[in-house]
Amino acid sequence: MVDVHWTKRSCCHLVLVLATWSIPAVVFVWSESTVPFVGLQALPGRAQSPAFLEPTVAPVAERPFIENFRPFDRSNLTTITTVSTTCSSALPSKSSVRTVYISSVYGWPTAGLLPSCPVPCHVTRDARLWRSADVIVWNLRWLTSSPQFMGATPSSKPRGQRWVANYDFEAPVHQPQRLMAELGRGIDWTAGFQTGSDFAKPHMKLAPLQEPGMVEKRNFAEGKDQLLLWFVSNCGPKDRINVFQQLASYLPASKVQRFGKCGGAFKDPCGNRFNVSCLKTSTRRFKFYAAFENTRCDGYITEKFTHGYQFGMVPIAWGGLSRADYEKVVPGSSFIHVDDFKDYKALANYLLKLDADDASYNKYFEWRTQYRMVDRDEIWDNVTCNLCMEAQKPWREQKRSRSDWNKGFFGRCKT
């Protein structure tokens, strides 16, 4: 007896599984990709779908068409006389699994099934699988693979596939014009820090606690004998350096610290921004953190702002077009914005006042009794899951493609 399972939707990648009741399943893969890959995976049970599996890659010199093949009694197989590979003009049929190909150097989940998603959501970073994906996320600033090298152009885009323009870490003034020209007409949706994105993807957000008010209260001023801290390594933007210097000039020099490549005599004690244990140690004596962005643009709030919340300091924001940009993601009572004050001297005097008043200082941490910080990976996993859920809908019910997606996506800037 023979079971025949067609597991790929595109005629460019056909996967045929032949299985009998008494022999292991064998997967044959035909691909038009210019990069060869091994298509055989061990299937532990007949119910397991190859769509859940990443292709294994063997060294080029040892890359057979089929690996781990064991001879079997061919008399058990039913002869297949013809197999049609003709492409249909209709939209591809949908399987229960949705696949998202991520082309991004930074962030996003690793390859595999996404946990805790209502629909089976398979994430891959393998560029060779781009044709068979339901959704492609293009990080316009930091791609892992060149669309031109992959052969991914708007004219070669598979029918039924969705393309997402993603923009994260850089200010909108650094628009990747070349990639926008290459991919622009193929983009359907947007995902990024911009609040107008189809799939909002901020660097941080707060979520309500399941049991509000149950968090143990403590004095966040205790053990903090220093005032202002700033980690900065991009020395190019001069405006924010000027802001910091003017603010620091009104504060006791012994209570202000600047770490990083732009820290002058004070080098970064942690080596990089991802050494969390070191950052906790280096920041624990400071009450305020300078969350100064390199450019002030609409909705442009990066991980710099997160440091204050993460390490128990009050963030002093200098970014966005105004304070209102921050209040879209966090309570207004949880941070200080430079724009709140008529000048830097007034801001410095306010910090000194809070330094002498523990009760007033602790009010900036009351959000912790109502909310928790959402981990950035959790935010991005949720976005990926939402993409799969959208792709699961019938085509006519999905978000409409945005031919004018780049209008307003990068926002406005004031510096």
TrEMBL record:
Membrane topology per record: Single-pass type II membrane protein
Principal place of residence: Golgi
Any Pfam family: Glyco_transf_10
Organism of provenance: Durusdinium trenchii
Alphabetical UniProt keywords: Glycosyltransferase, Golgi apparatus, Membrane, Transferase, Transmembrane, Transmembrane helix
Residue ranges of every copy of the Fucosyltransferase C-terminal domain listed in the record: 222-399
EC number: 2.4.1.-
Transmembrane segments: 12-31
Cell cycle found in the keyword field: no
Family affiliation: Belongs to the glycosyltransferase 10 family.
Protein's name according to its UniProt entry: Fucosyltransferase
Domain of life: Eukaryota
Matching Gene3D superfamilies: Glycosyl transferase family 10, C-terminal domain (3.40.50.11660)
InterPro entries listed in its UniProt record: Glyco_tran_10_C, Glyco_trans_10, GT10-like_C_sf
UniProt lineage: Eukaryota, Sar, Alveolata, Dinophyceae, Suessiales
Localization: Golgi apparatus, Golgi stack membrane
Pathway named in the protein's UniProt entry: Protein modification; protein glycosylation
Enzyme class: transferase
